[in-house]
Model the fold of this input.
Amino acid sequence: MTVVFPEPMAARLHDAVEAGEYASTSEAVRDAVRLWSQHRDSLALERLQQGWDAGKASGGPGTLDVDQLRRQGRCG
Done:
């Protein structure tokens, strides 16, 4: 895989390596991708939590009349 960074980003990567924060630019990029992945995972979890909360807030379950659903053509 080849990745091309704009010069300011590349300079920051090189600076981090020169400062001893990372052994190589590849290591810095892997760390960045790990952080990005964790961020995406936390956003997905947040969306799931919001859906759960919305479902709970929509009210409790009602009774299900299967015969009525069949008459409406909504059940097999």
Q: What stands out?
A: The CA atoms of residues 3 and 63 lie 56 Å apart. DSSP finds three helices and no strands in the chain. The longest helix spans residues 25-57. The chain has a mean pLDDT of 91.
